[in-house]
Amino acid sequence: MSINPFAAALAISLLATPVLAADLGSYDQPSVGGWDGAYVGVSGGMSSPNLNPFSGNKGLSAGAQAGYNTTVGGAVVGGEVEASYLGDSRVKVEGGRIKERHRLSAKGKVGAPIDQTLIYGTAGLAMTNFRDNGNVAGPDGWKPGYILGAGVEQKLTSNVSARVEYNYVITNSVRTFSNGVGTTGNVRDHTLKAGLNVSF
């Protein structure tokens, strides 16, 4: 399987984040609020088969997320689950394109807190639901894949924060049919989204 260079860079940044966090851990943090605890939130943005999410075949995405963070050795680590509607973004397959409709994901997260800003990387598993498009028939049910990402989150109050996040998703072995001919291939997409989280 070929490796997307942008995804590889994200994975490297995810591994490097704890080192950065350790260096920053000695600085005093303002008292607006820390990152520890559970949170829920909503997000919206663009999903596209291209790195530029505002290019052709894009779809408006919307979702909700819930997660938990804790501080370990100066780094913020945690996990998050997310459910998203992908707006029928049209991803390329052999013989044409199919639509991406819904996604469920479970991700781990490692971040470096800088004052009230959190810079983080994320990686995990994703399940995507596809739809037919034109003469191309997509697969039934949910298909598993991998998700990589990075983001920046900013505290607005002690329990409200805003964030921007990028995700790259690859879904392996997607079976499609075009004009009666079946093919199997990997599907890739990019999502850029902004969101709000409320911690408690």
Automatic annotation (TrEMBL):
InterPro entries attached to this UniProt entry: Beta-barrel_OMP, OMP-like, OMP/PagP_B-barrel
Domain named Outer membrane protein beta-barrel: residues: 7-200
Keyword Acetylation: no
Gene Ontology CC entries for this record: cell outer membrane
Species of the source: Rhizobium metallidurans
Primary location class: membrane
Alphabetical keyword list: Cell outer membrane, Membrane, Signal
Protein known as: Outer membrane immunogenic protein
Subcellular location: Cell outer membrane
Annotated Gene3D superfamilies: 2.40.160.20
Source lineage: Bacteria, Pseudomonadati, Pseudomonadota, Alphaproteobacteria, Hyphomicrobiales
